[in-house]
Design brief:
mainly alpha, 15 helices, Receptor-associated Protein, 2 domains, three-stranded antiparallel beta sheet
């Protein structure tokens, strides 16, 4: 019986395509879209009940990695797939993940392939995961594919930690510094202002600047906070547009020092994702489409989609990557060697390992350099305000000593 499906995918030109269509199954719709030159990224039944309530939990990547590795071991031991899913579902502490695995088990028990059952839960099993599983089922190497998937997820978690280390630490320190400065300007400086007014002290220009800033903060703090939230909302809405996302992601990659780290992270993610897909037997055009969708950066996504178009037209992947400023010569050279020797997945794995080490070293160096700089910045801000407030007192003390 035909069902109504909602789908999202990439056309041959690399543009987003969305719509809805009736088909006998997800596989039938997937084949239909591919014949039309559309690489499906997401397919789901229209009007299907939400598996997760809006207030429900989420499945963490670490939980998914552990499940994937355990499922691989159980399948390798010769246990039936339904029994594996039932056993692993019962031992999950995350109730949301437990419900997902129960639904997957029921679909498999009713005759659906594992990949199709996983595709019904895109919030847990993305297109990369389901495509790898489909390739594993087709090739009879599901246990091997699941091992590679668990390794990929673990590496992705490690890479995400590196991103958080590079971005969160300076952001938190700057936020704390800003909060301290605002508190001093809002509560401490007005007390000094009252004292100076009562003593009719002569105020040097640094003190006048600090007092003027304090009055602005005291009178306009709610408006300043509202303006900050408004600016954040505008940036988020702008980032939600294709042009805005491309502009902001490009600017992030151009930032001195930090941009270099972000570029290495993007190359590492690209190499690891594409290597995992190719080693799992996923066709290269589909692999490139999935890699573009998981790139996490609009500039990298655009470069990968251009590469996919060039490969579809019979051109070399290395030649296309060479025209993008994102990928340095070492990447294009190793990809070229991989294409010539037929070991592209192995070369991409070596690239991923190399850049993962580079990311670790770059993040460590960045944090080592940022820590004293941020402490110095905080000291200059707080120390500058304190000295500015004490300058009039020094002047008054010197006058009293003369008298």
């Amino acid at each position: 019986m035909a069902q109504e499906y909602l789908y999202r995918g990439k056309s041959r030109a690399g543009t987003d395509v969305r719509g809805q269509r009736r088909a006998a199954s997800r596989q039938a719709l997937t084949h239909m879209l591919r014949r039309e030159g559309i690489m499906p990224v997401m397919i789901k039944e229209k009007g299907r009940r939400r598996l997760f309530p809006r207030s429900g939990g989420r499945v963490r990547p670490k939980e998914l990695a552990v499940f994937t590795r355990q499922l691989s071991v159980m399948i390798d031991a010769g246990l039936p797939l339904v029994q594996c899913l039932e056993s692993l579902g019962q031992q999950q502490e995350n109730s949301a993940f437990q419900r997902v695995l129960q639904a997957v088990r029921e679909d498999v028990e009713n005759g659906a392939p594992l990949a199709s059952a996983l595709e019904r839960h895109p919030r847990v099993f993305d297109s990369l995961y389901s495509s790898m599983v489909a390739a594993g089922e087709a090739g009879g190497i599901l246990d091997t594919i699941l091992q590679r998937l668990s390794t990929y997820i673990e590496k992705a978690v490690k890479l995400k930690r590196a991103v958080l280390s590079a971005m969160v630490y300076p952001a938190v320190v700057l936020a704390v510094a800003l909060a301290i400065v605002l508190l001093i300007l809002w509560k401490v400086v007005p007390m000094f202002t009252t004292l100076f007014t009562s003593l009719q002290a002569e105020l040097p220009w640094p003190t006048q600047v600090v007092i003027a800033t304090s009055r602005l903060v005291g009178h306009s703090l709610p408006f300043l906070m509202l303006g900050a939230f408004g600016l954040g909302y505008i940036v988020r809405r702008y980032y939600a547009t294709p042009g805005g996302r491309h502009a902001i992601d490009r600017a992030l990659l151009k930032i001195p020092i930090l941009g270099g780290v972000m570029r290495k992270i993007a190359i590492s993610r690209f190499s690891r994702t594409l290597a995992t897909l190719l080693s799992g037997g996923v066709p290269i055009l589909e692999s490139l489409a999935i890699t573009a969708g998981t790139a996490g950066n609009a500039v990298v996504e655009e470069a990968v989609l251009k590469t996919r178009g060039a490969v579809r037209d019979g051109k070399s992947m290395a030649e296309t990557l060479r025209n993008s400023w994102i990928f340095p010569p070492i990447v294009t050279q190793m990809v070229g060697v991989g294409e010539q020797t037929g070991a592209l997945d192995a070369m991409l794995t070596k690239l991923a390992e190399f850049y993962e080490d580079e990311v670790d070293a770059a993040v460590s160096d960045l944090l080592t350099a940022l820590e004293p700089m941020l402490i110095l910045l905080l000291g200059l801000l707080v120390g500058g305000i304190v000295i500015s407030m004490y300058l009039p007192l020094f002047s008054l003390i010197s006058k009293l000593s003369v008298l």
